[in-house]
Amino acid sequence: MSKPDALIIGGGHNGLVCAWYLARAGWKVVIAERRSVVGGAAVTEEFHPGFRNSTASYTVSLLQPRIIADMGLKRHGLSFVQRPLANFLPLDDRRYLKMGGSLAATQAEVAKFSARDAEVLPAYHHALERVADVLRALALQTPPNAGGGLRSLLAAATQGWALRHLSVEAQRDVVELFTKSARDVLDSWFESAELKAAFGFDAVVGNYASPDTPGSAYVLLHHVFGEVDNVKGAWAHAVGGMGAITQAMRKACEAAGVTILTDAPVAKVLVDGGRAVGARLEDGRELFARHIVANVGPKLLYGRLIDEADLPADFARRMKGYRVGSGTFRMNVALSELPRFTCLPEPGPHLASGIVIAPSLDYMDRAFSDARAHGWSRQPIVEMLIPSTLDDSLAPARAHVASLFCQQFAPVLPDGRDWADAREEAADLVIDTIEALAPGFRASVLGRLVLSPTDLEERFGLAGGDIFHGAMGLDQLWSARPVVGHAAYAGPVANLWMCGAGTHPGGGVTGAPGHNAARELLKYS
Predict the structure, then answer these.
(1) What is the pLDDT of residue 160?
(2) Region 225-250: what's the mean pLDDT?
């Protein structure tokens, strides 16, 4: 076999996207995937007899419409079903807040707690939407790269122009959302603790931080700039689970001529004369290509797969300081029946939404403080989705599956404890947290899959269990992702490229890093 044009390390969704765009341009592409199935963290697997669910990534909004169209993913079997509501917050035994469905419906819910907040809500949505439109425009652009010459200067001018065209008020919103804490931003808009909690939850999803942490408002924004089937800000389920996305991508890649190797874990990137030339697999096989493209996080790539001696000293030092660890604890549970929340016990659209247990910003702040002191929060933040309410292919008749996405759980436990020993204790606490609001939930659990931060790292290669391949702070965004000078998807070693979530625009199932990396490869090669 002749030498491929590109060898992509990792068959997650960004690697598949990158491979497809390169293959469409006529390149010969090989993907080396460590697991027996492609998809990375976006996979659907059976975790209890007869019960299937999205193992890690679990909901859809950020996947780029252009990528869906270009790759023909719907022709390859992909379809979505939107949530009837965005979120449901059971606040205690009596009170609850439902978000979404329509602006009028949300305002009516908010008015239960504050008539003023209900009145202000449209203006808040408008302010966020203006900034979200900027992010949407930037997502498929390559950030200006320090030291990149005229091309980078032009990119900086072009991308900066979008900001200059915003009103003064919108420019102020940009600055606040990128620098302030979620609490500071929400306090400036609203008075009710309940509504602040509903919005503040997005600021701590995959963010090992307090809503009081400066910069946490950006993470709130990162979760609202998506769209599904032309509906901005919508959230949905992929029918068949998140693996339906990556299996459609696999079909598109194979139709384009991409060679996909599974059960092919990479042990080392091979560097010769300062150039990346190939990869050595754990079984000793060596694969070579004109370009090596890494769809793994920067911490894994530069900390384990490349010898430090092959990296510039300053870059190696900065990579040691690259921040990972999203504080995420992930569970899938098989249920004999739907939960009955005391505040709203009968089945309804609220059970097909994101069910958020985090009734206040103070609750979220305590969760983070607990995790830092004890390893995990004594009252954890839990989002429960029950996709089987909308997709009956995932569970037996009258039974259900639930995704439990939990924060804050320390990537490294204090006092030398190991997550292997603490995993089940923490999982029991999560179940107890739901049980307190939905009595009988514990008895309905038929089986469960528990993934601690360490499990997420070992199963999916997410360093520190970080679902975003690196913290989404201002110091690790846009032209600084993963570090200043290497924001244009090219690594510090010649012929080495990056196409994963550790590059712009960051985490989530977007496909944007893979799309952008392919464009840069084709442009400069």
Answers:
(1) 56
(2) 87
Residue type, 278: G
Name 195's Cβ contacts closer than 8 Å, sequence gap at least 6: 97, 110, 113, 114, 117, 121
Q: What is residue 368's three-state secondary structure?
A: helix
Which residue, among 434, 438, 435, has the nearest Cα to 343 in the 3D structure? 438
For residue 301, the 8-state DSSP code is: I
- CA dist 14 and 475 (Å) reads 22
Rounded Cα distance, 107 and 117, in Å = 8
Q: Which range, of 146-150, 217-221, 426-430, averages the lowest pLDDT? A: 146-150
Query: Which CATH number goes with the domain that contains 15?
Result: 3.50.50.60
Q: Give ∠ CA 314-317-318 in degrees, rounded to 5.
A: 90
Does 159 have pLDDT greater than 60?
no
Q: Which two tokens stand for residue 194?
A: 């309940």
Distance between CA atoms of residues 514 and 525, nearest Å: 16
Give the per-residue pLDDT at 447.
98
Ramachandran category for residue 151: left, alpha or beta (phi over 0 → left; psi -120 to 50 → alpha): alpha
- Return the amino acid letter for 81: V
Q: How many CA atoms lie within 13 A of 348 on its CB side?
A: 12
Strand 29-32 with 259-261, pairing: parallel
Residues 6 or more apart whose Cβ sits within 8 Å of residue 132: 221, 224, 225, 232, 233
Give the residue carrying structure tokens 């403080």: 369
The pLDDT score that the predictor gives to residue 170 is 77
Does the residue 476 lie in any domain? Answer: yes
DSSP string, 429-447: HHHHHHHTTSTTHHHHEEE
Using omega within 30 degrees of 0 as the cis cutoff, is the peptide bond preceding 408 cis?
yes
Give yes or no for residue 281 having a pLDDT over 60: yes
Enumerate the β-bridge partners of residue 90: 96
Q: Regarding predicted confidence, which is higher, 436 or 160?
A: 436
Given pLDDT bands bounded at 50, 70 and 90, which one contains residue 171? confident
Angle, nearest 10°, between helix axes 13-24 and 512-524?
40
Q: 300-333: per-residue pLDDT in tens?
A: 999 999 999 999 999 999 999 999 999 999 999 9
In a domain, 360, yes or no: no
246 in a domain, yes or no?
yes
Q: Which one, of 245, 256, 254, lies nearest residue 77 by Cα? A: 245
**Residue 237 in contact with residue 80, Cβ under 8 Å?**
yes
Closest CA to 15 of 35, 3, 453, 2: 35
DSSP-derived 3-state class of residue 460: helix
Q: Could you tell me if residue 464 is inside a domain? A: no
Range of the domain at 15: 6-42+60-80+239-323+469-524
H runs (alpha helix) in 391-511: 419-435, 441-444, 453-460
Count of structural domains, the chain? 1
Tell me the three state secondary structure of residue 388: helix
Distance CA 221, CA 226 (A): 10
